[in-house]
Amino acid sequence: MQLTTKERLVLALDVDNFKKAEELVSKLNNYVGVFKIGSQLFTAEGAKVVNMLNERGGKVFLDLKFHDIPNTVARAAEVATKSGVYIFNVHTSGGYEMMKAAAEATKKTSLALGIRKPLILGVTLLTSINQEILEKEIGIKKRLEEQVVHLAKLAKAAGLDGVVASPREIKEIRKACGENFVILTPGIRPAGKSSDDQKRIMTPREAIKLGADFLVIGRPIRNAFNPVEAAKEILKEMEGD
């Protein structure tokens, strides 16, 4: 994707009320390309946060990770499309038919309404999962990178636009799915910052150099003493050589 540095930066609005979200959007709308609304904020405030961002000209990544039977996910995809979000996601572990149902419902709804089709991304493996957790807790014996690529290829075959994956899998996903396949990467930490609960992390510049299209960053901006300056520093780091 041809994107500016700002358009690549996704801020995770992981707060628990509308006022906090609105304050962050007001401060950061000029420095952030996309605002991610996840389960915490959406559960607290619902669709009015999406509407607020749309009214302010902000792009929304609806991060609700739909994972259900195909018909249910298709109906959720229709609603997400009608709400005007820029990106939404589903869990690739829901399988081919579920992902295909979401892709087809989104395309049909956007064509019927004459609106831009949102990007649909498949969540591969959460960045809190490492090889040990994959094997011992989830019961999958494959190499972690191999499982991520398998899920990415399944998402592409089902008609999704791309995937959510850690920056450590970017090169293998690119090789398997091509240059036009969108890769959004959480697990991004600016140089010198804490990894928090993320297991598979990388700096903004490293992820960009490897070919990430979008970078999701939350706490390093959201919890900073000066969020605007923190966002500016991250944009600078993304552009650096």
Following the backbone from N to C, one meets helices and strands in this order, namely HEHEHHEHEHEHHEHEHEHH
Beta-strand content: 15-25%
Question: Structural class, from secondary structure content?
Answer: alpha/beta
Provide the gyration radius in Å. 17 Å
Summarize the structure.
The protein is an alpha/beta fold and 241 residues long. The chain is 48% helix and 15% strand. The chain is globular.
Ordered list of secondary-structure elements with their pairings:
Layout: H1 5-8, E1 9-12, H2 18-28, E2 34-37, H3 39-45, H4 48-55, E3 59-66, H5 70-82, E4 87-91, H6 96-113, E5 119-123, H7 131-138, H8 144-157, E6 162-164, H9 170-177, E7 182-185, H10 204-210, E8 214-217, H11 219-222, H12 227-239
Parallel strand pairs: 1-2, 1-8, 2-3, 3-4, 4-5, 5-6, 6-7, 7-8
Helix pairs in contact: 2-4, 5-6, 8-9, 10-12
Keywords:
241 residues, eight-stranded parallel β-barrel, globular, alpha/beta, 8 strands
Describe this structure in words.
Helices cover 48% and strands 15% of the residues. The chain is an alpha/beta fold. The chain has an eight-stranded parallel beta barrel, surrounded by seven helices. Helix 2 (18-28) packs parallel to helix 4 (48-55) and helix 5 packs parallel to helix 6 (96-113).
